[in-house]
C-alpha cells in the first residue's frame, strides 16, 4: 500500500552539472516543469550520467540519432538504454529520451521540446521516476542536443498524494503553442492528427496514492467526468484525448485508447496549433472504492 501522503520529492539532491552548460540547463528546466506539474523533482544519478555520456558520444561519433547502438560501429557502449544503464552500474527501470536545443542553443529546450510532445512528454513526467542522467552532444548541424535518461531503482517511485493529479503544462507556465505531431516517433495516431502540426499536448496522470491502492486491491474503477481545454474567452478548444489503460470515459467524454501510454495517463491534444494566449485545462474523475472524486484546473500561456 502507498501512503495517502504520496511519495513526491519536492527538493532534488545536489547536482554537479556545471552552471551554464547544456546539461545544467536541461536539468533545471526539467525539474522546474515537473515540479509545476506535480510530478516531483529528479535527483542527478552519476551512473545514469555515465550511460548518457556514452550514448551521446556514440550519437555524435556516428551521427546516428538512435536509441539502440550497433556493436559494429565506433563508440559502441551497449545496445539498449537499459543495457547502458546496467553497464554503468544503475539497477532499475530506465527510460531514454533524445532531444535538441534548436536555434536557442539552450539546454532547457532539450527538455521543454520533449515535453511538448505526446509520448516523450509522458516519459519525462509519469512513471514514478526519481533519478536522471543527462549527456550532451552536437548534431549534424553543430547544434547542441541531449540524451536524458530517467530511472527508478525499485517500487513505485514518486506517486502523488491522495486527491492529487499530475497536470502539464504546469500552472503558470509559458510554452510553445505548436506541437509538431508529424515529427514525433512514434507518431500520434494519424487518423486523429492528420496534419504535421497540432496544439500543445496537455498531459494528465490520475495515478496517485488512491489509484495505486485501489489498483492493488482490484477495486480501481477510474472514470473521467471531464477533460477539457478552454481559451481565455471560455471557448472549448477542439481536441482529441488519448488514454492509457485503466481509464474509462464517463458520459459526454470521448477517450481514444492508446496502448503506448502509461496506465492512468490521458493526453489532450488540440487539433490545431494554439494561438498565443492563456488557456485553462480542467480534469475531473472518480477512481472507485472509497476514494473521493478528484479534480484539477490549471492554466498556462501559449506563445
Query: What is the averaged pLDDT score?
Result: 97
Bin the strand percentage: 25-35%
The number of strands is 16
| N-C termini distance | 42 Å
* Count of alpha and pi helical runs: 6
Work out the radius of gyration.
19 Å
Could you say what the CATH topology of the largest domain is called? Answer: Immunoglobulin-like
- Determine the oligomeric state from the structure: single chain
What is the N-to-C succession of helices and strands?
A: HEHHEHHEEEEEEEHEEEEEEE
Shape: globular
The overall number of domains is 2
| Spans of at least 5 consecutive residues with low confidence | none
Helical content class: 10-25%
Major sheet: order of its strands? 5-9-14-11-13
Amino acid at each position: 500500500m502507498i501512503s495517502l501522503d504520496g511519495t513526491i520529492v519536492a527538493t532534488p539532491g545536489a547536482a554537479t552539472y556545471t552552471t551554464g552548460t547544456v546539461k545544467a540547463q536541461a536539468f533545471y528546466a526539467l525539474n522546474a516543469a515537473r515540479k509545476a506539474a506535480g510530478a516531483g523533482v529528479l535527483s542527478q544519478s552519476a551512473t545514469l550520467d555515465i550511460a548518457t555520456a556514452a550514448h551521446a558520444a556514440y550519437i555524435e561519433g556516428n551521427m546516428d540519432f538512435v536509441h539502440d547502438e550497433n556493436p559494429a560501429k565506433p563508440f559502441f557502449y551497449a545496445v539498449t538504454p537499459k543495457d547502458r544503464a546496467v553497464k554503468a552500474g544503475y539497477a532499475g527501470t530506465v527510460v531514454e529520451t533524445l532531444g535538441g536545443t534548436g536555434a536557442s542553443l539552450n539546454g532547457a529546450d532539450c527538455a521543454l521540446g520533449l515535453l511538448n510532445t505526446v509520448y516523450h512528454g509522458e516519459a519525462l513526467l509519469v512513471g514514478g521516476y526519481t533519478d536522471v542522467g543527462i549527456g550532451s552532444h552536437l548534431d549534424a548541424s553543430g547544434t547542441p542536443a541531449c540524451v536524458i535518461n530517467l530511472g527508478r531503482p525499485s517500487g513505485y517511485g514518486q506517486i502523488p498524494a491522495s486527491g492529487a493529479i499530475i497536470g502539464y503544462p504546469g500552472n503558470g507556465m509559458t510554452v510553445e503553442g505548436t506541437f509538431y505531431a508529424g515529427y514525433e516517433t512514434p507518431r500520434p495516431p494519424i487518423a486523429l492528427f492528420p496534419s504535421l502540426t497540432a496544439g500543445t499536448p496537455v498531459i494528465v496522470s490520475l495515478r496517485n496514492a488512491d489509484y495505486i491502492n485501489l489498483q492493488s486491491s482490484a477495486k480501481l474503477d477510474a472514470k473521467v467526468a471531464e477533460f477539457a481545454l478552454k481559451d481565455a474567452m471560455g471557448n472549448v478548444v477542439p481536441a482529441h484525448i488519448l488514454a492509457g489503460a485503466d481509464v474509462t470515459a464517463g458520459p459526454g467524454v470521448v477517450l481514444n485508447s492508446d496502448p503506448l501510454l502509461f496506465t492512468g495517463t490521458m493526453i489532450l491534444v488540440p487539433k490545431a496549433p494554439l494561438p498565443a494566449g492563456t488557456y485553462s485545462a480542467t480534469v475531473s474523475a472518480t477512481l472507485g472504492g472509497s476514494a473521493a472524486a478528484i479534480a484539477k484546473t490549471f492554466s498556462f500561456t501559449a506563445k
